[in-house]
Structure formats: C-alpha cells, structure tokens
Amino acid sequence: MTPRETENLAPGAPDFRFEEHDTVGSTNSLCFDRAAAGHPGNLWIRAEVQSEGRGRRGRDWSSPRGNLFASLLLIDPQPADRIGELPLAAAVALADAVDNATGAHQLVDLKWPNDLLVGGAKLSGILLEAETLSDGRQAVVIGFGVNCVSHPPLTLYQATDLRSLGYQVVADRLFEALLPAMSDYLGQWKQPGGFQTIRRQWLKRAAHLGKEISVRTAQDEITGVFADLDERGHLVLKQDDGRQRTIYAGDVFLSGA
C-alpha cells in the first residue's frame, strides 16, 4: 500500500487526514518525506513510539510508548514571515486540548514560546520545522510530544505527566481533542488579524508574565522582566535601565533558576 492509501480522515477535522504508525524514527521527519514526495499537506502523522525523537535546538526527546507523538504537515500555510507565529497558535491549541481531555480548566500555563507547564513542570514540547521543497513549496511541520503516562528526568527542566498529576488520559483521547482544536486555531490564524486573538489567548495562560526571567539565546543570556509579546509573538523584556528588548528565539528560565 502507498502512504496515501494508509491515510484516514481526521475525526473532528474534516479538512485534515492522518496516518498512524507503531514505531518511526521521527514523525517530523516522516512528514518531510511525505512533502518531498508531493503531498499537498494538512496531514497528521502519529506514532506509538519514536526512536529518533528530537526537541528544540537538536535536543533528544524521550519517546516511550504511552505518550503522544504526532506531527502536522502544512504546505504554504501563510507567507514565510508569518511562520514564526505558528508555535504560539499550536501551544494554545494543545492547551485547550489538554483541558478538553482532562476535564480541567486552565490546567496548563504556557512558557514562551510553546512549552506547556503544570506547576512549573514541563508537560509537553512543540517543535516547528520548515524547509523549501525542490518545487518551491514551503513545507512546515509542527511536532507535538506530550507526556501522558510518563516523563523523562530532564536536566534543563523539571518534567511531569498527566498520570502523575492524577489524570487518566490516554494518548488516543488527547489526540482526538487536539485534531479539532488545531484545526480551529489554524483557521483563526489565517483570518485577517487572527493572530492577535491567538496572542491574547496565549497571554491569558502565560507563565512568568510580569516576572524577572533569564533568556538564553545562541549568543548570550539576557535578564529582565517578561513585559509582553509583540504583535508577531516575540518576547518583550523590560531591562533594569527601562529599555525594552525584543527576543526572537531562546530558552526561558526564572531568574536564579
């Protein structure tokens, strides 16, 4: 059977299709394979286990059975200069899906740009990758990893999982909640001014807003008060001298952590 023949309609998201696998290297990588083969996009790929899962900045992502590993392939979703907004839209969608699946309200906080936290511990990670295909199309892949039944002993951050928090939510149930949530937020993102609504939703869940944080970038470490997100979703730090600095990429820590 060809990959296209193994696709199914995504429940609750009729404009999307999905593939399911037992074990893959990386769901993100498999999405790029499909794109290179000419897939038109709006495709979810989910696996029970990843043998080569990865996180931001090339870090390994522990991918044991029972947790959720899924990636979404989009082709030319918006102009390239807007792709940086997508991780925040994905984070809000996943946060809503977690609430839906657990029956909780505002269970998670969001750490810029797209980590989900519960009580300061990391519940999930989202990895966005993009590349230009040989035919000029832009393939954008959003990978979701959520700790449903177990969590790794992370060195950079404290971690948690839904079962440890008292929620018996299997990966299937969370994926079913994520499909329509992501579809809805993508539709909103594509509307004129839609990202500003998403930005406001993100800020309602913002961890560390108004607190002093440190941001480790590829070049240095900057400390200041998390003041806001700008109109494109970049982090705005207010420094001791009163000046504001916009951060485009980096790892956020509470100062002193």
Count of individual helical segments:
4
CATH class of the largest domain: Alpha Beta
Strands of the largest sheet, in order across it?
A: 1-2-3-4-8-7-6-5
Overall pLDDT score: 91
Structural class: alpha+beta
CATH-defined architecture of the largest domain: 2-Layer Sandwich
Instruction: Provide the number of structural domains.
Output: 2
Report the count of strand segments. 13
Distance between the termini: 51 Å
Instruction: Give the C-alpha Rg.
Output: 18 Å
Assign an overall shape.
globular
What is the CATH T-level topology of the largest domain?
Answer: BirA Bifunctional Protein, domain 2
Can you say what the CATH homologous superfamily of the largest domain is?
Bira Bifunctional Protein, Domain 2
Helix proportion: 10-25%
Order of secondary-structure elements: EEHEEHEEEEHHEEEEE
- Major beta sheet summary: 8 strands, mixed
Low-confidence parts lasting 5 or more residues at pLDDT below 50?
A: none
Please state roughly what percent of the residues sit in beta strands, choosing from under 5%, 5-15%, 15-25%, 25-35%, 35-45% or over 45%.
Answer: 25-35%
Structure, explained:
The chain has 257 residues and is an alpha+beta fold. The protein folds into two domains: 3-204, Bira Bifunctional Protein, Domain 2 (BirA Bifunctional Protein, domain 2, 2-Layer Sandwich); 212-254, Roll (SH3 type barrels). Helix content is 23%, strand content 31%. A hairpin with a 5-residue loop joins strand 11 and strand 12. Helix 2 packs across helix 4. It is globular and about 55 Å long. The model has no long low-confidence stretch (mean pLDDT 91).
